[in-house]
Amino acid sequence: MTKQVKTRKQIPANFQTIGLDFLISLIALVLAILTGGIIIWLFGNDPIASYRALIQGAFGTPMAFTQSVTKSVPLLLTGLAVALAYKCTVFNIGVEGQLLLGAIAAGIAGTLFPMPGILNIPFVLGISMLAGMVWAFFPALLKQKANVNVVISTIMFNYVGQSLVQYLILGPFKAEGAASATNPIQATALLPKLLPSPYVLNFGVVIALAAAVAVYFLLNRTSLGYEMCAVGLNKDASYTNGINVERNMFLALLMSGALAGLAGGIEVTGTMGKVINGFSANYGFSGIPVALMARNNPFAIIITALLLGSMRSGSLMLQSSVGVSKNMVDIIQGLVIVFLCAENVIRYYIKKGWGGK
Amino acid sequence: MGSIIELKGITKRFPGIVANDHISISFEEGEIHTLAGENGAGKSTLMNILFGLYQPDEGELLIRGKPVKFSNSKDSIRHKIGMVHQHFMLIPKLTVTENIIVGREIGTTLKVDRKMAGNVIRELSEQYGLKVDPDKKISELSVTEQQRVEILKVLYREAEILIFDEPTAVLTPQEIDEFCEILLKLKEKGKTIIFISHKLAEVMKISDRITVIRMGKVVGTVEKKETDSAGITRMMVGRDVNLGRRSRRQFDNQENILEVKDVCYTVNKTVKKLNHLNLALRNGEVLGIAGVDGNGQEELVNVICGKLIPDSGSVFMNGREITKERIRDRKDGGLGLIPEDRHRDGLVLEYSIANNLILGLQYHEAYARHGIWLDFKKIHDSATVLKEQFDIRCANVEAGAGTLSGGNQQKVVIAREATRNPDVLIAVQPTRGLDVGSMEFVQKTLLEQRDKGKGVLLFSLELDEILTVSDRIAVIFKGEIIDVVDANRVTRQELGMMMLGSQKEKGGEIIDKTS
């Protein structure tokens, strides 16, 4: 008995917290899936068959798997965008708008100048990041100059962004003959494919993974990340010790916007090859549960993005083979958030359970 | 009077530490029994065991001779034990009554009878002289009043044994006096009181018996009549503590290294917080700022450290004007600050000790390559050195700062500011809430800075601290420095009078107002 106690005590404290956080996210996910199952059952379908179809659709074939990974790429980037800002207590709800702006900017820039791929791709993606950043810049400026709540201003900028992008796609940049899309970008601006057809994996996944590593290094290994996290944890102590709180929050929002813009850019250069009206299936908003489930840990975001991405990818099979609407995955995603917000309740029962042992 | 609670061989272990090591104490009915000991000695752990929040690993708990086992606080409440926590557990948006009856509502299942509850509480409040209005909201109450609500909460649950966990840490000296009255009144009404404190003055004032705990063990239990403060201190720290004046290095050619010139600051266009304030700090001295709380001390600190830009006037450090400089530049220019509220302004509690030791220094070449890439090896090594040098008691420097006791947290702040090797060190209430051992250490560190030829500006509400640590004392009154005196040539009484605005007639120098 005493020996057992000792081994548990030797685990470093931060590993214990990470373990507990992981457990809580897992419990929230399981509860969401169970509740989702009940909802499916209430509508007269077989929950087990539905989930089987979902998994089959997401991972059933190598092809389905590459599709799931591809769907996860924008979620990974938007998740990182939400997490990075949140670490500095900036709640960037405007990821969706920033992503759309990034996409349209990439769509336009991709048609502009002929250059070799090695230059064109960084150029187009750079422009998309810049566009996302610009769309985050206005709320950041409003916050700094007039103390406008970032949550509200970024939500509002989503609407402005959506309408603006829609106008650009259907108006000045509408392709000849196309119903609702821009002209295709140049072939040199397209991201290289990683696997031969019919698999769909493109280089975007590598960029997104690199972004996760970059965000991790930024937050954990640099003085800027140290400052941003310090601001997130204690603004007063940061300020007293000479850290510019406003500047850090400003930068966090801009960098978050850049990541969101990059997500849009990759969708255009990697998947669509042009900007199609209404292409974003709420990738920006879904970044919130991705980050929330991962507790803003960049590496955990890789996993949660893959999870939610494959759920979306499998939802088509769910609809076609079992007849459950593919929007069911949105319900599950929403339930995950609800259960994650009940974190303290879960934590309480875990602690109680441990105490009883 | 028999023993009402008996602790027998209570042992509680936490990772890496034995918080309570075979502790045996017997509390008698109707006494005020003080548990004294340094921060981190294990007093709070012991009381949490007694209150059922922790379960002991070994040992026995007897109430009126019968062994009991508490698995949560409900059990202890049933045995009429009540606890007033150091950090209040009240809901600010609810009224006093609502806060008190939470969990024990009067009335039917559907409706709480607030009126009746209010009457019960009013009666209790009068009975013990607590003067609390049951209908007020908690957010409208002062700290003392909130504390009384906590006491009422315990009394409402019909507690006979009241545990107070460092209740005076948050109170001013006057409030402490009033609080002692309340304790004596409770004792008069037959309650048994267990009082946790490390402030000797009040311990000696109200206790019947005193048990001293050091490093998780009972050093001894003594009758108050048979001991004195020095005796208790010796038991607590394990050696004699020297808080008096020490010999100091003498300096020739002292120069002003910090000058505050004619600074004014007005709040809301009407309240003059700083009124043409002049102050000069020399190298190699501790300049104490004495004054009743709220006479402009906070604003003066903020003007010097850069949180506040004055309406007029200027601040010079080392002859360079810094009135409008950024905090970061001031600190890099030789300013160190030990802030008043270490939890709010001093530390990021969620960060590790090592990370806290570089707060504000994170871009310095010593800890970050090219000012960008944090060098964790250097940070860790430097933290380990500081841990030894400043006697920060922790399992290791990667532990969270929030896990440290108050004294050790303060040592982290001081260690960090000392590594800046500042020319001017501002210490605001640096020993507040600390035990004697830590207090001595902090004061010693300030004097070491002084002896190194630095200037130390000490803000404190404790007159004794001002008198023993300072070389000169500046008295602040209504936003003005009304006098500067030699600390060796002023008495406590004279200083007290000056703090209330009376100019000093004898001794000391009058500040040169023309400069």
Descriptive account of the structure:
- The complex is a heterodimer of chains A (357) and B (515).
- Chain A is mainly alpha-helical.
- Chain A is built from 15 helices and no strands.
- With 515 residues, chain B is an alpha/beta fold.
- Chain B has 17 helices and 22 strands.
- Chain B has helices at 43-50, 73-78, 96-101, 114-127, 143-156, 173-188, 200-206, 229-237, 297-305, 327-332, 342-346, 353-356, 376-389, 406-419, 436-451, 463-469, 492-499; strands at residues 3-14, 17-28, 32-36, 58-63, 66-68, 81-84, 161-165, 192-197, 209-214, 217-223, 256-267, 271-282, 285-290, 312-317, 320-321, 335-338, 368-369, 373-374, 424-428, 455-459, 472-477, 480-486.
- Chain B starts with a strand and ends in a 16-residue tail after the last helix.
- Residues 505-515 of chain B have low confidence and may be disordered.
List keywords for this structure.
heterodimer, A: 357 residues, mainly alpha, disordered N terminus, B: 515 residues, alpha/beta, six-stranded mixed beta sheet, 17 helices, disordered C terminus
Layout of secondary structure:
The complex is a heterodimer of chains A (357) and B (515).
Chain A: H1 2-10, H2 13-42, H3 47-59, H4 62-87, H5 95-112, H6 117-146, H7 150-170, H8 204-221, H9 223-233, H10 235-240, H11 245-272, H12 283-293, H13 298-322, H14 328-341, H15 343-356
Chain B: E1 3-14, E2 17-28, E3 32-36, H1 43-50, E4 58-63, E5 66-68, H2 73-78, E6 81-84, H3 96-101, H4 114-127, H5 143-156, E7 161-165, H6 173-188, E8 192-197, H7 200-206, E9 209-214, E10 217-223, H8 229-237, E11 256-267, E12 271-282, E13 285-290, H9 297-305, E14 312-317, E15 320-321, H10 327-332, E16 335-338, H11 342-346, H12 353-356, E17 368-369, E18 373-374, H13 376-389, H14 406-419, E19 424-428, H15 436-451, E20 455-459, H16 463-469, E21 472-477, E22 480-486, H17 492-499
Parallel strand pairs in B: 3-8, 3-9, 6-7, 7-8, 13-20, 13-21, 16-19, 19-20
Antiparallel strand pairs in B: 1-2, 1-4, 4-5, 9-10, 11-12, 11-14, 14-15, 17-18, 21-22
